[in-house]
Specification:
The protein is an alpha/beta fold. The protein is 37% helix and 28% strand. The protein contains 10 helices and 10 strands. The structure holds adenosine-5'-triphosphate.
Length: 248
């Protein structure tokens, strides 16, 4: 049985500042319950694709000028970013963006801000986040600005989890992290996906690690999808091996 498509990006074009054409017709499908990877080098358009989906282009003078983005069949492009959050889609930005002056735990609690649950529910969710990220429990009273890059990535992911999302858009989780930590972060993505049923669309330059954890991959080059397929097939593809996995 084919999984239901949650997110459908259909032939989108994105232009910055009215003139700079960055996405030249990108299409992709994100099935419910899967981990989908958006791969490609620096400047290929991965972040732009995620921001087009979550409606975060306006502040950068970017605009979806063609095509459509649908979530559960409903058009969402060029809408209000808050509507998408309401629908259960949350983006974890590249560079993490923690509130540096708040503690780790206060950062996590900001992720629950749209919810009207009781204190006990919110505490249960905090406990869940700490079960995936035991390190954050140890660091819960530390000011986020003084934690390491890996811990800040965990805070950003934990905060997203606090909003009980259906789908997480994760931008470049490996950025700036040591290989061992990258592996750990992807392990956690995998267990959140398997245990909580959260759907992931993740943008990643690290093709090697992403294709070991994702189910399906899209490869972007200069604003176009040049290849896509099940992760296992992409890993074996000679062009992917040569150009993205550094083997030939
Ligand atoms: P990275 O790994 O560097 O984030 P990426 O694949 O995510 O790469 P994007 O950040 O989406 O790529 O950038 C795609 C292209 O769009 C790049 O050429 C970039 O210079 C350009 N670009 C990004 N943001 C803007 C902006 N606000 N105004 C103009 N051009 C932009």
């Amino acid at each position: 049985v084919q999984a239901e498509t949650l997110l459908e990006v259909n032939n989108i074009e994105v232009i910055y500042n009215h003139v700079i054409l960055v996405l030249k017709g990108v299409s992709l499908n994100v099935p419910k319950g899967g981990i989908t990877a958006l791969l490609g080098g620096n400047g290929a358009g991965k972040t732009t694709t995620l921001k087009a989906i979550s409606n975060l282009l306006h502040s950068e003078r970017g605009e979806v000028t063609k095509g459509s983005v649908k979530y559960r069949g409903n058009p969402v492009h060029n809408g209000d970013p808050a509507d998408l959050v309401q629908k259960g889609v949350i983006q974890v930005m590249e560079g993490r963006h923690c509130f540096e002056h708040l503690t780790v735990e206060e950062n996590l609690l900001t992720g629950a801000y749209t919810r009207k649950d009781s204190k006990a529910d919110i505490q249960a969710d905090l406990d869940l986040v700490y079960s995936y990220f035991p390190r954050l429990k140890e660091r819960r009273r530390s000011q986020a600005g003084y934690t390491s890059g890996g811990e800040q990535q965990m805070v950003a992911m934990g905060r997203a989890l606090m909003s009980k999302p259906e789908t997480i858009l994760l931008d470049e989780p490996s950025m700036g992290l040591a290989p061992q930590l990258v592996e750990q972060i992807f392990q956690i993505v995998k267990s959140i996906n398997e245990n909580e049923g959260v759907t992931f669309l993740l943008a990643e330059q690290n093709t090697n690690v992403a294709l070991r954890y994702a189910h399906y991959g899209y490869i972007l080059e200069s604003g176009r999808v040049v290849m896509d397929g099940p992760a296992a097939d992409l890993r074996e593809n000679p062009d992917v091996k040569e150009f993205y996995l550094g083997m030939s």
